[in-house]
Amino acid sequence: MRAHQAFFERLAEEWDAAQSPARQERLRQLLSRFDNVWKESPLILDVGTGTGALLPLLRERAALTPIVAMDFAYAMLQRARERERFALMAQADVHHLPFPARTFGAIICHSSFPHFADKPAALSELKRTLRIGGRLIVMHDICRERVNAIHRSSAVTRCDLLPTGAEMEQMLLQAGFCEVQVQDCQAHFLAVGVSHV
Ligand SMILES: C[S@@+](CC[C@H](N)C(=O)[O-])C[C@H]1O[C@@H](n2cnc3c(N)ncnc32)[C@H](O)[C@@H]1O
């Protein structure tokens, strides 16, 4: 965990410059699929917010909904704060969330899920903090093969792999999520689960 945290603290400085200009529009399109989720949620959690790429886009879709931007890397959060003044920033590890049970109406993990060291434990912690009927969305704006190729290219992240669609579905069901849907296609990876308990 420490090696990962240190890795992302260092990456913060170069993260935005390394993203393709087309990414913003891809993210906008993907987020628009869940407009009902953003609008109906009283509070949104962005897990592994990084430099806050999603924050202005979420704001476009749900202008009045409060957002908590969470990351374990402080340098990432500093940049997210510069990007979006109105979100609440929280430095925390997804495996030990400093939030009470049933806090969020929607939780999004964009490009962060593969990095969670204990994925079943992280899912169970995320589910704990979702309200009844709340939705978890695991999103990647590129396909699984590309995500995994990028992660394999670095010594620190080489084991941080996105599971197959079938494996992801099983993980969500085992964590107790309902209405599970997974799209593992050439353009993106999306997994959604609803908390009913
Ligand atoms: C690849 S970056 C993606 C950032 C952002 N979501 C984006 O799409 O631009 C992954 C982020 O997840 C964070 N992260 C990884 N593991 C985490 C954990 N266990 N708890 C909290 N944040 C974590 C990292 O610090 C990093 O900022």
Task: Record keyword descriptors for this entry.
197 residues, alpha/beta, Rossmann fold, seven-stranded mixed beta sheet, 7 strands, 22% strand, globular, binds S-adenosylmethionine
Task: Describe the model.
The chain is an alpha/beta fold and 197 residues long. It has a single domain (2-194), classed as Rossmann fold (3-Layer(aba) Sandwich). Helices cover 39% and strands 22% of the residues. It has a seven-stranded mixed beta sheet with strand order 3-2-1-4-5-7-6, with helices on both faces. The chain is globular and about 40 Å long. The chain starts with a helix and ends with a strand. Bound molecules: S-adenosylmethionine.
Order of strands across the biggest sheet? Answer: 3-2-1-4-5-7-6
Domain module tally = 1
Q: How many strands appear in the DSSP assignment?
A: 7
Termini, distance in Å?
Answer: 30 Å
The CATH architecture term is: 3-Layer(aba) Sandwich
Number of helices: 8
Anisotropy-based shape: globular
CATH class: Alpha Beta
Mean pLDDT: 96
SSE order: HHHEHEHEEHEHHEE
Q: What are the segments in which pLDDT stays under 50 over at least 5 consecutive residues?
A: none
Question: Using only CA atoms, what is the Rg?
Answer: 15 Å
CATH fold descriptor: Rossmann fold
Approximately how much beta-strand content do the residues carry? 15-25%
Helix content: 25-40%
| Helical/strand content category | alpha/beta
* Ligands, deduplicated: S-adenosylmethionine
Instruction: Give the biggest beta sheet.
Output: 7 strands, mixed
CATH homologous superfamily assignment: Vaccinia Virus protein VP39
